[in-house]
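Protein-export protein SecB: structure tokens wanted.
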Amino acid sequence: MAEENNAPQQGAGAAEGDKPQLKFSLQRIYVKDISFEAPNSPSVFKQAFKPKVNLDLNTTSTKIADDQYEVVVKVTAQVNDSETGTTSFLAEIEQAGLFRIAGLEGAQLEQTLGAFCPNLLFPYARECVDNLVNRGGFPPLMLAPVNFEAMYAQRKKREAQAAQAATENTH
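Answer:
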């Protein structure tokens, strides 16, 4: 009976032409690198906590095999005292995932790796940063959700502008 169910699917794929079938799966989520520093402890705990948060986000992707990619979301949170400027803590995490992606090419693959995959990984990074900060003796650092689609669109726009400026400068 299993053969009967597979036969129509194979026939349907052949009728559509020989387009590669889209395959997407998240194989593993893991922490690639993690760091927490509280360089001014314990004196930082003696004063009122008035944080000024500096947050840096970055994403990278690497092709591991024909249809396997590693995507990394790097979150760096540096919190300084808003009055004195002394560093309360620095938390860094590289949250990574292994993705199997087939049937996507060019701009679609690039957008998947640059926006969709980071959107899947960021909640894990947020939780890890929050846990690190809490274990360091500080109040939780609740990072707001991030729109990686918008970040990706902004990056592509900057790249296009830079390419256009480079073209204009050579003529």
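The chain has one domain: 20-160. The two ends are 67 Å apart (CA to CA).

Cheers.
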